[in-house]
Amino acid sequence: LYFLGRVRAGRGPVEIGLLAKRAAVGPALSWENLADRGVLKAVVAVGREGDPFRALAGNFRHAFGQGLLMYDGFGEFVRPLEVRDRGPRPDYSSGLNDHLQGAAVRWTTGRWSLDGLASDKPLDFPLNPDGSVDGNLDDLHETTGDVQTAAGLANDDSVRERVVGGRARWGT
Q: Coil, helix or strand for 34?
């Protein structure tokens, strides 16, 4: 059982959005507890998808349109899967640790496209007494996000994920 609220508003090239989610168990439902122990996402976007300039601040996702190889099993047919290059866009997914949190910019002129992003977000993961991570880092995003137990509360925001990157693209 969850409390979930989602609000999006836009005018011209500016969009503002807010998503709030909290499990039925845990601390009282207040703005502070929701921000600390639930899911609280917000984003401000200037420019629309496809505009020559787009900037986002807050929770966002990125799709670069790279070709992915998918297969049905070992030794099976491998085929390309096209993913459309959408660039930075708001993240309104209901998972806390999905995607990125920070800022992203896309500038397009003619055949050139430049992307930049910076993300810094807290994650929940158990730690050893020496401060090292006690678990498989490959599971970091899948096993965390909703504080529903005392152990989850103790591990709340124990690790920070920092990502900085960019991409220059020339295409037809």
A: helix
pTM: 0.70
Place of tokens 């295409």: 171
Tokens representing 98 are 């999905």
Asked if residue 161 lies in contact with residue 123, where contact means CB atoms within 8 angstroms, the answer is yes
What pLDDT score was predicted for residue 117? 93
Mean pLDDT for the chain overall = 76
48-54 average pLDDT score: 88
Could you tell me the sign of the dihedral formed by the alpha carbons of 68, 69, 70, 73, in that order? negative
Cβ count near 56 (within 10 Å): 26
Report the pLDDT value the prediction gives residue 94, as an integer from 0 to 100: 74
Q: Compute the 3-state secondary structure of the chain and give helix, strand, coil in percent, each to the nearest 5.
A: 10, 50, 40
β partners of residue 113: 108, 169
